[in-house]
Amino acid sequence: MDTIDGLPLHPLVVHLVVVIVPLAALAVVVAALWPRARTWMGPMPLILALVGLIATPIASTAGENLEDRLGLSSPAVDEHTSAGDVVIVGSGCLFGAAALLYLIGLPLVAGRLRLSPSAVTTVDAAARVLAVAAAIAAVYLVFRAGDTGSRAVWGM
């Protein structure tokens, strides 16, 4: 399915990615830097990151189908395609970091790891650093894909 009610699927799904991935990144950073918020938000950052991870390849595939259907070929479109292809890496890292951050915070998981409290603290600190790095990378990759896409369409 390349269209929804006659509209190309790519720009519709891209807007979901452009909203949900930065929103997930913000939630993950807040959870990483503010332990009380992590408890309060529960799995929400993880769910947001999962939605972003699912929407990203749909947007990418729809974009490739749109490119083929319209016969688009230019350096700007090629740059956008390349930038769009790596957004999945950022979304995947964000989801992985969100999952690690969520799971390490669960007493059941921390207890089953059979780690000392200091080791759990070290893993938690590493998860926080990874979460912030993944959030920054994911937002940057979404921004780059969106910027190159708008330049390809509007010729800026």
UniProtKB/TrEMBL annotation:
It comes from the Bacteria. Keywords: Membrane, Transmembrane, Transmembrane helix. The chain crosses the membrane at residues 12-34, 46-63, 83-104, 125-143. InterPro entries: DUF2231_TM (IPR019251). Residues 6-155 form the DUF2231 domain. This is DUF2231 domain-containing protein.
